[in-house]
Amino acid sequence: MNTYSPLTKKDKQTMLSDIGASSVAELFADTPKEKLVKDFSLPSPISEIDLDKELKNLSAKNYSNEGRLCFLGAGAYNHFIPAAVNHLVKRSEFYTAYTPYQPEMSQGMLQAIFEYQTYICMLAGMDVANASLYDGATALAEAAAIAYHKTNRKKLLVSRVVHPERRAVLKTYAGAADKAIEEIPYDKNGATDLNALEKMLGPDVAGVVIPQVNFFGVIEDLSLAKDAVKKNGSLFIATFDPISMGIVTPPGELGVDIAVGEGQSLGGNISFGGPCLGLFACTKELIRYVPGRLVGQTVDDQNRRGFVLTLQAREQHIRREKAASNICSNEALNALSASVYLSLLGKNGLKKVAELCLSKANYLKAQIEKTKGFSGVFVGPIFKEFVVKTSTTPKELNKKLAKSNIIGGLDLEKFYPELKNHWLLCVTEVLSKEEIDQLVGAIKSAG
Questions:
Q1: Quick one: pLDDT at residue 231?
Q2: Backbone region of residue 267 per phi and psi (left: phi > 0; alpha: psi in -120 to 50; beta: other values)
Q3: CB atoms within 10 A of CB 394
Q4: What is the pTM of this model?
Q5: Helix/strand/coil percent split, the chain, to 5
Q6: Which residues contact 152 (CB under 8 A, 6 or more apart)?
Q7: Is residue 401 part of a domain?
Q8: DSSP line for 285-313
Q9: C-alpha 181: how far from its chain's center?
Q10: Same domain, 311 and 390
Q11: Tell me: the pLDDT tens digits for 131-167?
Q12: Which residues span the domain enclosing 417?
């Protein structure tokens, strides 16, 4: 019994007849035999009841933050998601939406994207935001592409405390385009070494990338690098944490040309690291270089407000030979999640979430640094993540914590070989003081 196929034998025969083939084998007769997989070794069909049980048993093997205390961040963050977010984004008119080419048919989706762009401009303090990119990594790569194109130079300087996986994506893009990437070291405070940056600047540098809250959780002062970067004629690119914007000065107010970030924190689930949302905003001077879609506000012939795709120099439009990159595809659903999340929180709510992340992370940092076998590493101000040095390996420590249903931090040696036995911990607003103290107690017991 073929339980899950919607086609009957008669349907298949009708389709083959219309094509002009007598059988499926004849349909694929031109395919080299070595390319055909004859045995997929698939199990026999089972009932829906049994299938449901099997899938639930498989999902139970996943190690997730459900029912556990999570102190792991490093790019994907466990923030509270109001119930209204999922309720609204799961409406069929949103989650089935495609690129809204026809404004007369797509005003709802166009307005949602326009509101999203407005929120990101407000968060980043920038003039223009696009209708989202795949994730923080591709947003950074697109910013780099603009720097190369705008300046006609071939080198990008990127801080070593930018997320290592985003740096890896950046190097992939640059290598394919025959461009160069050089990494700026970090200093003893865990921040970008600005003295090293000044020595690395030169006439071949297209842009400089510095994180506002870096991979170690340290808050950096972007204003300290602005003058040197601008004097060199390079584009100033910053990566930012959108939640931190509740308490940190927006990058646009600090002289940044392009601000990019990961938007998963804005109403997105962790879900094994995704789905993600690439935040991209820039100054109005760079609007013609912006990748992806832009939605603009206009009026119709009766002077009624409306929304349209604008500046459409995209690869699928008539000006495709002048197109900017269009890697964004349709991230509108994730962008909508971010918009709903931000509208629910408002300015005061976002500030409160940021303050809770800040205070709780600093509380845990102080408690752990007082614990035997642990010591502080960097003295710079932190946001929601921080680094401690351990007397045992983070791998062993995380293994012991898992027995207490606690997800520990990241072993930094994976990305920074010089940071052996260094542990990156994260605290967000969802963790209570009692739960933070529970981690401290478990650490003492594990030691």
A1: 97
A2: left
A3: 24
A4: 0.88
A5: 45, 15, 40
A6: 206
A7: yes
A8: GGGGG--S--EEEEE-TTS-EEEEE-S--
A9: 21
A10: no
A11: 888 899 999 999 999 999 999 999 999 999 999 999 9
A12: 69-80+347-446
